[in-house]
Specification:
Structural class: mainly alpha
Largest sheet: 2 strands, antiparallel
Strand content: 5-15%
Oligomer: single chain
Shape: elongated
Radius of gyration: 42 Å
Order of helices and strands: EEHHHH
Distance between the termini: 111 Å
Strand order of the largest sheet: 1-2
Helix content: 55-70%
Length: 185
């Protein structure tokens, strides 16, 4: 979206036209930009340009231990068991109803795949909601504890004030009963 206002000038020969650009709303795509210069994303303090990860680099990070411990991940066991049952059920029904074996297996694998993804996401969502509810309950419990502490402090202060008032009244009554003897003495 470039809008240019140009003015053509006719040279004295009349065969060559030159254009002057007075206004440009955006930069042409070939304009040098600090972010588009080669090496602009590299560390200019002597670093090397970043190496971008490839698919083979990603596969090199996968270890056999990851597959041995997949059942320990939250929601993975539940989603796999549900998906295995659903895939077996759909594939079996497809086979029993007269479908070819390859078609029944394809349905079973597709059902397993989509059910495992769906159940995993469903389980993760439930866990997130549960964590949120637990956090809210903890906050409410902390708030109620704070209220109880504040109430206990208020009760202690009121009891302390009541004791102080009772002590002052006892001192006043004691001093007023001795006042008679002090004046006459």
């Amino acid at each position: 979206m470039t809008a240019n206002k140009t003015e053509s000038t006719q040279p004295s020969s009349g065969s060559d036209t030159t254009k002057k650009t007075y206004e440009t709303f955006d930069y042409p795509p070939s304009a040098p930009n600090a972010n588009s210069l080669p090496g602009a994303d590299a560390n200019t303090a002597g670093g090397r340009p970043p190496q971008y990860a490839t698919l083979t680099d990603a596969f090199k990070t996968i270890r056999l231990e990851h597959f041995k411990e997949v059942h320990k991940k939250p929601c993975a066991r539940e989603s796999f068991l549900t998906a295995i049952g659903a895939g077996f059920g759909v594939g079996g029904i497809r086979f029993v109803l007269g479908g070819p074996v390859f078609s029944a297996c394809s349905w079973a694998v597709a059902t397993f795949t989509f059910t495992s993804f769906g159940m995993y996401e469903y389980c993760q969502r439930k866990r997130k909601i549960e964590k949120s509810n637990v956090r809210k309950m903890q906050e409410a419990l902390e708030e109620s504890k704070k209220k109880k502490i504040v109430e206990q402090v208020k009760k202690r202060e009121e009891a302390h004030k009541a004791r102080e008032q009772a002590r002052e009244e006892v001192q006043r009554s004691a001093s007023s009963s001795w006042a008679f003897w002090r004046k006459s003495g």
